Amino acid sequence: MKIFITGIAGFLGSHLAKHLINLGHDVSGNDNMIGGDLENISKKIIFYKEDCTDLKKMTEITKGSEIIYHCAATAHEGLSVFSPNFITKNIYLASTSVITASIINKIKRFVFCSSMARYGEQKTPFTEDMDTKPVDPYGIAKVASEKCLMHLADLNGMEWNIAVPHNIIGPNQKYDDPYRNVVSIFINRNLQGKPAIIYGDGEQKRCFSYIDDVIFCLIKLGLDKNITKEIVNVGPDEETVSIKEVANLVANEVGFNGNPKFIPERPKEVKLASCSADKARKILGYETKTSLRNSIKKTAHFIKSRGVKTFEYNLPLEINNEITPETWKKKLI
Q1: What is the C-alpha separation between 301 and 40, in angstroms, rounded?
Q2: Could you give the count of Cα atoms lying within 13 Å of 3 in the half-sphere of its Cβ?
Q3: Cα–Cα distance list, 157 to 98, 170, 230 (Å)
Q4: Is 329:320 a contact under the CB 8 Å cutoff?
Q5: For residues 57 and 97, what is the distance between their CA atoms, to the nearest angstrom?
Q6: d(CA 29, CA 72)
Q7: Which pLDDT belongs to residue 50?
Q8: For residue 13, which of 71, 131, 274, 275 is within the disulfide window of CB 3.0 to 4.6 Å?
């Protein structure tokens, strides 16, 4: 099949492309390179350096595709509180553009990669039948994008599925971004002899998904003819862990002997965020094949192989006031 992936130079998109190529599909995609890396792009794909917000371009380059995976996103939930215009433009406006181009080109199926941020601060584990209650601009934009997809796709006869991944880690993840990817940030800092920086008391609870376990589910959501109009949490629910525990696991893996540095909590950070994977197990055959410890090991190996990097503060900080984290204002990560 002819499959188009937005954000194909990014972490999720590049892995998805590799697996689909191995299955024999004709893969193309785009990336604006805000969070992408040219080293992630397979030579077997057709690549377009284009921005998802450009409707004319997206209509041109998606023409002839049968399935679209919308992986592109400035997935910076914490930063969205302080850069709401930049983040939501690259979530909602970008999604609306890609959805519109897909309808114009009569795409058969659209798979949208959403976020646990859709659930907000609710009782865990989150289940797909819960109301969406996002607490930050990133989550709000993701929910709005979901609604836009469902309404426009149903109106125009386009199939859709929505994946809701947990925190994904693994090789190819951007590890010089000071605003997201906590495991990669910890690894990059520890390898430089610097302690992990933890916001608040470190008791925030999360689950982490290894990239290959997520890709398996995305492929089913795109290719299985019997699965349509589904919203599915994707990721492990057996291994909920605190951020403080994650810092210790990372330090043990890379051989860092210091203690984490604790700083004031970030505004709007959800304390407990974990999802039930029961629906994914039932309709996708999901299972956790890679433990958190092994996920960290593989991610650390990738970062070691590429070499540590200084953190790049190349995204706008639109709201810079007394509640903006000092780590971002003063570039301390």
Answers
A1: 16
A2: 29
A3: 16, 36, 15
A4: yes
A5: 10
A6: 10
A7: 98
A8: 71
Given its phi and psi angles, is residue 285 left (phi above 0), alpha (psi -120 to 50 degrees) or beta?
left
Domains and CATH numbers, the chain: 2-168+209-234 (3.40.50.720), 169-206+237-274+289-329 (3.90.25.10)
Judge contact between 210 and 290, C-beta under 8 A: yes
The string over 200-226, giving b where at least 16 C-beta atoms fall within 10 Å of a residue's C-beta and e elsewhere, is eebebebbbbbbebbbbbbbbbbbeee
* DSSP one-letter code for 117: G
Q: Which residues of 5-32 are buried (b: 16+ CB within 10 A; e: fewer)?
A: bbbbbbbbbbbbbbbbbeeebbbbbbbb
DSSP codes, 6-34:
ETTTSHHHHHHHHHHHHTT-EEEEE--SS
Q: What's the pLDDT score for residue 145?
A: 98
- Say if residues 34 and 87 touch (Cβ distance below 8 Å): no
State mean pLDDT over 104-125: 97
Residues with Cβ within 8 Å of residue 134, at least 6 apart in sequence: 117, 118, 119, 120, 140, 142, 143
pLDDT band, residue 109 (cuts 50/70/90): very high
Chain mean pLDDT for the chain: 97
What mean pLDDT do residues 129-156 have?
A: 98
Mean pLDDT of 283-295: 96
Specify the pTM. Answer: 0.97
Closest CA to 114 of 218, 208, 10: 218
